[in-house]
Design brief:
InterPro entries: DHS-like_NAD/FAD-binding_dom, NADH_DH_b, PNTB-like. Strand 2, helix 15 and strand 3 form a beta-alpha-beta unit. This protein has a six-stranded parallel beta sheet. The protein has about 475 residues and is an alpha/beta fold. Helix 4 runs antiparallel to helix 7, helix 6 runs antiparallel to helix 7 and helix 8 packs antiparallel against helix 9. It is about 60% helix and about 5% strand. The protein starts with a helix and ends with a helix.
């Protein structure tokens, strides 16, 4: 069999492994296998590509593989689940900048050919890689900074910010067109890359923390699109296929996130959701004299006579690293023949599926996790709902106040349950920066404290009852 046939067969096998791996990632029971299949597919693709190129020496390639493997292993072992959104943002960024450098190297090699004849498919792909890859890199690291707290989570707005984005975007497009018409001028490519990096900053910095799940999934899509464009530059089929898979899945996930927030992608990118947080005033008057505090012992008494319990996890639970303690509570209640389920809002946490991943890590059965559309109609039959660190996704203002920044966003209708217990450190607002009327509802009790410690106290009180 000829080398070309072997390489194409290898790329086909790798592509199939990517597709099957993504399919299996959709369920926690098969996610580990799906991850391994995807890794195997990438290994096959990398090895086949190394044989496909006229490589003079593998020394630096092996050094890069070794360094990358060590860094990857350390990150996989050390990274906390609460920091997974930050890791995803960083990986998106690295994917984007890799596309920029690879396309730049390809341009450098092709310039001598362009003197006599220009391959416009190649040069257009190179320019596209620079624009999308640059936006992905800088935008991802701005998102990382917001998630990690290096940059304010609030939407950074200033007079004329939309005009600035438009002008920088038009500059990038203009440079891209000029680069296609004058492909022998390598300096244009790197200037275009710099402008694209600047555009990524201007696009993400005005977006508030509440929109980070959408931004991360969109940047993930960008990284795939940039990789696919680089595949056209290198004429590499597996890179085109894998990049298209990532790009398409990222766009689909972005649409799901937007639907869950009842907002358009345009509104996310240009609306500055979260800016209201900068104008947030003390809501003491809103809550004053209306909040009913409770204790772990009182909650234990409620749970002791309950027949059905729903737990709503949120980012506060993730920060407290309370998922394993929540699992212990789940097991204790289940042992008492209490029906316990978990209500999952699509945008709870800081990235798509954040709560699902946390609970799966704690070995909570997947069939106990119920999506919002499935569980909302059942809340009126629930004895006790425990909201652990969630805020905006349970806020009734989304339905009652058309002027609220979360107006129209589908929420978990926990207020329909017989009793709601909210575990929260304080009455501070969520990412949207607005008060939550649920906290002063007649059937709501506030258990103030750290999500993990409060749950441990509930467990201890239950065991004594």
């Amino acid at each position: 069999m000829e080398l070309v046939s072997i390489l194409n067969l290898s790329y086909l096998v790798a592509s199939i492994l990517f597709i099957v791996g993504i399919k299996q990632l959709a369920h926690p029971k098969t996610a580990t296998r799906g991850n391994l299949l995807g890794a195997l597919g990438m290994l096959i693709a990398v090895v086949a590509t190394l044989f496909d190129q006229a490589i003079l020496t593998y020394d630096w390639i092996l050094v890069g593989v070794l360094i990358g493997s060590v860094v990857g292993i350390i990150l996989a072992i050390k990274i906390q689940m609460t920091a997974m959104p930050q890791l995803v943002a960083v990986l998106n960024g690295f994917g984007g900048i890799a596309s920029v450098f690879v396309a730049g190297a390809a341009l450098q090699l092709s310039i001598p050919k362009y003197v006599t004849a220009v391959n416009y498919q190649e040069i257009v792909s190179i320019v596209f890689s620079a624009i999308v890859g640059g936006i992905t890199f800088s935008g991802s690291f701005i998102a990382f900074g917001k998630l990690q707290g290096f940059i304010t989570e609030k939407a950074v707005r200033y007079p004329g910010d939309q005009l600035v984005k438009i002008l920088v975007g038009l500059t990038a497009i203009g440079l891209g067109v000029y680069g296609c018409l004058e492909p022998t001028d390598e300096s244009i490519y790197w200037i275009l890359s710099g402008v694209s990096l600047l555009l990524g900053v201007f696009l993400v910095i005005p977006i508030g923390g509440a929109d980070m799940p959408v931004v991360i999934s969109l940047l993930n899509s960008y990284s795939g699109i940039a990789a696919s464009a680089t595949g056209f530059v290198l004429n590499n089929n597996v890179l085109i296929i894998s990049g298209s898979l990532v790009g398409a899945s990222g766009i689909i996930l972005t649409q799901i996130m937007c639907k869950a927030m009842n907002r358009s992608l345009t509104n996310v990118l240009f609306g500055g959701f979260g800016a209201v947080a900068t104008e947030m005033k003390d809501d003491g008057d809103f809550y004053s004299g209306k909040v009913k505090s409770t204790s772990a012992e009182e909650v234990a008494m409620l749970l002791d006579v309950a027949r059905s319990v729903v737990i709503v996890p949120g980012y506060g639970m993730a920060v407290a690293q309370a998922q394993h303690t929540v699992r212990d509570l789940y097991q204790l209640l289940t042992a008492r023949n209490i029906d316990v389920t978990f209500a999952i809002h699509p945008v709870a946490g800081r990235m798509p599926g954040h709560m699902n991943v946390l609970l799966a890590e704690a070995d909570i059965p997947y069939d106990r996790l119920k999506e919002m559309d499935e569980i909302n109609s059942t809340f009126e039959n629930v004895d006790v709902v425990i909201v652990n660190g969630a805020n905006d996704v349970t806020n009734p203002l989304a339905k009652t106040d058309p002027k609220s920044p979360i107006a129209g966003m589908p929420i978990l209708d926990v207020g329909n349950a017989k009793t709601v217990v909210v575990i929260k450190r304080s009455l501070s607002p969520g990412f949207a920066g607005v008060p939550n009327p649920l906290f002063i509802a007649d059937n709501c009790l506030m258990l103030f404290g750290d999500g993990k410690k409060a749950t441990q106290e509930m467990i201890a009180a239950l065991k004594e009852s």
